[in-house]
Design brief:
The complex is a heterodimer of chains A (166) and B (348). In chain A, 75% of the residues lie in helices and 0% in strands. Chain A is mainly α and 166 residues long. In chain A, helix 2 runs antiparallel to helix 3. Chain B folds into 2 domains: 71 residues, no CATH class; 269 residues, no CATH class. In chain B, a hairpin with a 2-residue loop joins strand 1 and strand 2. Classes of the chains: A mainly alpha (166), B mainly alpha (348). Chains A and B meet through helix 2 and helix 3 of A and helix 5, helix 6 and helix 7 of B.
Amino acid sequence: MDLFTIIFYSFAVITLGGGAVVVFSRNIVHSAFALLFAFFGVAGLYVLLMADFLAITQLMIYVGGILVLILFGVMLTSQVLDVQIKTGTIQTFPAVLAVSALAGTLVGIFWSTDWKTTAAPPMEVTAAKIGEMLLTSYLLPFEIASVVLLAALIGAAMIARREKNA
Amino acid sequence: MYELLQNLLGDSLLVYVIGAALPLLFVLPFAVVAVLLEMKVSAHMQDRVAYMYTGWHGVLQPVADILKLLQKEDTIPAAADKFLFRVAPFLVFMGGYAGFAALPFSSAYIGTNIDLGVFYLLAISSLSVIGLMMAGWASNNKWSLFGSMRSVGQIISYEIPAALSILVAVMIAGSLNLQEVSKFQDGGLQNWIVFGGPLPLLQKILLFPFTLTAFFILFIAGIAEVNRTPFDLPEAESELVQGYNTEYSGMKFAIFYLAEFANMFLVSGIVVSLYLGGWTSPLGDVMSGPIWGFFWFVAKGMFFVFLQVWIRWTLPRLRVDQLMYTSWKVLTPFLFLCIFAVGLILVL
């Protein structure tokens, strides 16, 4: 096993392990913290795919932003530890059917696809290219996304402030 | 650096493990020196002498402290979330230590020479944010929880002025790679970005007020990011005992302490690399080279560490509302102005 494979599997284990804890833990705070490892592992996998900018953005947005928000949300909820997470099984038969159909399709595709492998190309500078493309070919989607974000920000500020006037 | 190791040891996991451990050789002795510096400087500023018994003028006191911490009983509160309580200090230290990978110590040494160095530094620090929340939550102590909440709120708010002031330097240097930014400022004092960088004289004069503002704001935001006075609300002793590390003792407490000192140097390193020439010599070609580069980088970094200690014993603590006011209504608008002006000057 070469180095790349070892690193790939370590990140895969971190991602899947984190994800498993998120799903199966009965403590909602543990679930929230386990998300960190899932996000971090995915960022590592992005690096192995030579998408360094995407990987760091993943850390910045998901770990630095969304996860902190989730944690604040969870911790500010009253009676955090009393939340009963229901993981009982209902409708077992349809669920088994749907899941096995999905799993069968995925495994089938995995086995039947003729995977083409090439030697990894050398690491390229991606940030400059992404920046250039955002300001040339993809300017319109970029601007629309920023306007949507701005609208969301103003909306959030409005909702947060309304209590004061009332 | 890695090529040298790879030539010595072949392409194995060992190379990466050693490469990742190298900054520890700097961080650990630095922490010892910084503990002493903090105590001695604060004492002399208050007309005291501090430790005098262990070694000459008490210079061995940090060593004694470390020995003491090693033997201390490691208590975990009965009602704590034991697993998270154990993980938190390591996560906090990891967030700080991972930053050292992108810090250019000299022209010959940088952990990883990635093109997104500064961006990586901003992103990886979020690991310590999560660690702080974990510590506060897992302690199951109101002071800890309040401390960690304050800390996280503060770090997130000050990430914005920090990122914007980094952007000013990045715009001038045209690179996110701290090694490239340092190289860009080579050639002496007058080429440092705080003085406008190695650009034509007219541009430098126009840029100077804005780069100086951004430099000061970056340092202020840096102090806030490491939770030191005047921004030490998360561990305000008079209100919160010790904040998020109230319940920690022994080695776990020591790791929090180590993380704090590592972060102090990291912040200084970022300021130095971006605005004060990094490892370049202030005298131009005199005393330059990889070894002197390391000396200059550490010397400049230590100066800012000293400044942080100095400020700690000079200024009173801010209130929470003043803290937010400073970040959002003072620093951020100034930086928007700086970015706009610097962009305009660079285009013209």
